[in-house]
Fold this sequence. Notes:
Number of strands: 11
Shape: globular
Number of helices: 5
Strand content: 15-25%
Order of helices and strands: EEHEEEHEHEEHEHEE
Low-confidence stretches: 204-254
Strand order of the largest sheet: 1-3-2-6-7-8-9
Radius of gyration: 17 Å
Distance between the termini: 35 Å
Largest sheet: 7 strands, mixed
Amino acid sequence: MAAAPVIIPSVAKHTSTLIFLHGLGDTGHGWATSMGALRTPDMKVICPTAPNMPVTMNGGFRLNSWFDLKSISISDPEDEEGIKKATRYVHELIQSEMKAGILSNRIMLGGFSQGGALALYAGLTFAEPLAGVMALSCWLPLHKSFPSVRKCPDTVPVLQCHGDCDPIVFYKFGQLSSSVLKSFMKNSHFQTYQGLGHSSCDAELSDMKVGRANSLVQPLWLIVIYCFLLCRNSSTIMFLASEAAQTGTPMRLY
């Protein structure tokens, strides 16, 4: 059984939620402090920890993993059952927030590597419109099943960030995933970082600053996704900030 999610409550009236999914071998605790410092006052942060299981590409040794990975390749078989089981868990987290009174378009999904892959699949197969999905250094799982398995509106914002020197999740894999997404999602964006491996860089902080400075008040139905720099241990990892126009005023993460 997986550990209970790390939950950081909002410091003001709770009106939005961010669910962030870690990568292979990590835990929700690894993200909690940094994200707690970066959340908006109205935002609750949920950092789940994946179950501990044998992972094929790790020689069968146990790791915290959202689903089994035989390899990270376009052509190799995927753990369809495991991906769908993990997706049901993420959907339950979203539904729990909705039952607590949070609108689906005030709930965001994000993740890094394997967690980013799960965030993509879970976001695309959730029927209610989410605020957005941010996927860092990852891929679209079970890509051949799309667009037929898509349940979300095609206007849900999707942001992919990927380094072109990623030795773990190859850049080409991210590009191909983006091509699939853009074929059926109207608001999908792929951001490339030159010379970057399986991590992040200072250029992403600049992207956040530009996006924040250029943010505009939009109609109530529009959610715009921006990204900012999140420092974790000795590496920097992209994370997602949303600006929601539900009340006519953008949300901002500082």
